[in-house]
Write a structure and sequence with these properties.
about 240 residues, Zn_peptidase_2, membrane, transmembrane, 3 strands, 7 helices
Length: about 240
């Protein structure tokens, strides 16, 4: 029962191609935007945005890793990678401003962000369960133990459903943070017109990676739903 299935590749290839394109766009735009000067470093830009919003209590810390930048709402800490924290470039301030946008969302109780926090446990559990359950289901199909295969495949589908729900909820959170960043870097004079254009390019490219990841999960989930349906039709 475990064999090459053209249907999987038919569903998976388009979002996979989109993801590869989006990742290339992010790397190329960040590299090009990194050569466009800004008036301050990424860390200074984030600090300015936070202070103007009355968020002096939010800490900014360097963190290891490439593009590992993130905001932690539990500790009210904004962490920036080395190439973002200390560089004076359009790419650096754009990414830092995006993460500061998440801190602003947190401070204003932005609805989708609160909903995303509620979805995290289910998505985490779904991520741990989905792959194991699907593998177990295919193994059960291979030995023709269909009474075990069906519930395992269904459990895997539910796991992917939890991941997909989180990713869908996350889209407006990321888009809103980027929109805030584009506006703030211009309003606060962090970049000039050219720098603002490169901030827009970097953040728009990053947004496509979230869209591609969501479509990839949806395609994978759809494939296993079809497998589950075909399996039960044959019984």
């Amino acid at each position: 029962m475990i064999h090459f299935d053209p249907l999987y590749f038919l569903l998976a290839l388009p979002p996979m191609a989109l993801m590869m394109w989006a990742q290339w766009r992010v790397k190329s735009n960040v590299a090009a935007g990194g050569r466009v000067a800004a008036n301050m470093t990424g860390a200074a830009a984030a600090r300015l945005i936070l202070d103007r919003a009355g968020l002096q209590h939010v800490r900014i810390e360097p963190v290891e890793g490439e593009l590992s930048d993130h905001y932690d709402p539990r500790t009210k800490t904004l962490r920036l990678s080395p190439e973002i924290y200390g560089r004076r470039s359009a790419a650096a301030v754009g990414i830092a401003a995006h993460e500061a946008g998440h801190a602003l969302q947190d401070a204003t109780n932005y609805g989708p962000m609160a909903l995303r926090a509620l979805a995290v446990p289910a998505a985490t559990a779904g991520g741990k369960i989905a792959g194991v359950a699907i593998m177990g289901g295919f193994l059960a199909m291979w030995i023709q133990a269909y009474s075990f295969a069906s519930p395992l495949i269904l459990l895997g589908i539910l796991g992917y459903g939890a991941i997909l729900a989180f990713q869908v909820i996350n889209l407006p959170v990321e888009f809103d943070a980027s929109n805030r960043a584009k506006r703030l870097v211009a309003d606060l004079g962090i970049v000039d017109a050219e720098g603002g254009e490169w901030v827009r390019k970097c953040l728009n490219a990053a947004a496509w990676t979230y869209v591609a990841a969501t479509l990839s999960t949806a395609a994978t989930m759809l494939y296993y739903i079809l497998v589950y349906t075909r399996m039960n039709d044959r019984r």
